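Model the whole thing, not chain by chain.
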Amino acid sequence: MRRAYFPTVVLVLCGLSGCSTNPATGRSQLILVSSAQIAAMGEAAEPEMTQQYGGEVDSLQLRGYVDRVGQRLARHTEPAYANIQWTFTVLDSDVINAFALPGSRVFISRGLLQRFTDEAQVAGVLAHEIGHVTGRHVDERLSQVIVANLGLGVAVQSTDSDLALLAVRLVRTGTLLKFNRDQEGEADEQGLKYMTRSGYDPHAMLDVLEILAEASRGPRQPELLSTHPHPESRMQNVGRLLQGHYRGTQDNPEFRKYRSRFQQEAAPYLPSSP
Ligand SMILES: [Zn+2]
């Protein structure tokens, strides 16, 4: 009966001011955790996740390059997110993955970067992850898990360290970082917006999805598809937006792929693609 229980709780909580309007998407969401609590959870989960993917890459050039792309995008998020301290970490792992931990900690694997040929593709992945953060998808997921597993009374009384422990467990089991179809669509929509605001060609988002589709035909399924499922609906959604709302970006010199910058500033520090 849990499935029936949760919507009832959501309705009651929304009526009691548990819901807030998201500054990036304008959508009403049930969020039971504060931004400070979310940030503390991300801090608690970060060391284990970083270690699980081989730690941070040694190359300071590569670290700096990805951070520059990420910070450029982050500067174009909504004013409500202006004071967030974003971090962008390159994981020294061959797997193809990217994710955002609770808070504003974005990760991309070396294995994914090795597949790319231009900077707009890097921006596409980072902008999608930023979109999950500004869409408050982890906060929303965590709030649902708290209500479903602990009950509202326990959730309200939980200390920050209780919640941090819960977050570590949920990150470890993958519960917290797996998004649904609507959240994936929303992260892409936000991502395309941040890309174009930053001067990137948004068509690179479709390139990324095609690279993932190609990689998924290989011997090893990209892990990114397990944390970010529904690639077919993502392709359709992004394709539709590119032909509609973003049609003016096609062959428009204002929106660039920055291929040579990627080739000069990132590619030399990446082993060649497997
Ligand atoms: Zn996603």
